[in-house]
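pls ignore typos typing on phone
PBG + seq
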Amino acid sequence: MPPAHPASVPQHRRPLPLRVGTRASPLALWQTRDFLARVTRFCPVLRDAKAFEEHQLLTSGDRIQDRRLAEIGGKGLFAKEIHEALLDRRIDFAVHSLKDLETEMPPGIVLACTLKREDARDVLVPGPALAAPDPADPLAALPRGAVIGTSSVRRQSQLLHRRPDLSVVMFRGNVQTRLRKLAEGEAAATMLALAGLKRLALAPPGAVALDPEVMVPAAGQGIVGVTVRADDTELRELLAAIEDPEARAVSAAERALLAALDGSCRTPIGGHARLLADGRLRLTGLVARADGGFLLRRTLEGDAAEAARLGAELGASLRRDAPADLFA
Ligand SMILES: NCc1[nH]cc(CCC(=O)O)c1CC(=O)O
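k done
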């Protein structure tokens, strides 16, 4: 799809500023400001310094720091209060990390725009006591019995499947908090999304990216998504014009996979799609047990125009062949 010509962007007659909702973490703020910069490049009438007003919102996911997301209700927790602000008309649109956004939007809210994907891979970050891992096989290099900090059941299951000798301690908080815990020796290494590190211009020494076939990323990882009220035609048109069609296709596949598998938010699930040179789409899905004792990974290729159908099909196939208790 060719990028829409700027002339097709609607003139904005509505009162300014447009109010943008965001979480307050450094990563969320970076993503929000990057998004606003894209909008103003595309729509010069919004270049005015007073065109946007940033509303930082505290979500349940930010408040609850002592438990796994999987235990307290999963993804929706980073978006609930933001959805409420949209529906209450306290904000006009909101910027999210797509991987923290539930697959089904609440009534009245739509995912209007997905931005160009940053690197979707996870990285292994060694703490100060560890030698830099071998980039060819980073997980093999971890010392026997080492303690790895993560609170993601998806990362934990894939790590323990490969290395049952390792143990895992909970690491929550934003990217900076987790790096501080690592520096303080709470774990020998941790795993983070490369996208977050790149956006924050952080390059922890020894960090190595993990092959997405070895550590299947989360659905939507590295993609920023923007939500608006379904009835806000004007903003929906503007946002549709700056959408990245490739990000829309891969996220449609990954999110349909997630939706098809989503029996319980405690289930480790991975989903990663990429567009091939011939316009086809290749999707890898993973479902596992948190302790790594069971792990099923499958790949499917199909027409990128039918990304969501492909995701649903792969999700159904994984679900059929995984133990039923994973979806209880
Ligand atoms: N769950 C927190 C979160 N949500 C999005 C990112 C990274 C950026 C992205 O995936 O777009 C992170 C940090 C991490 O997982 O290390």
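The chain is about 30% helix and 20% strand. Residues 97, 99-100, 175, 192-193, 195-196, 221-222 surround PBG (CB under 6 Å). more later
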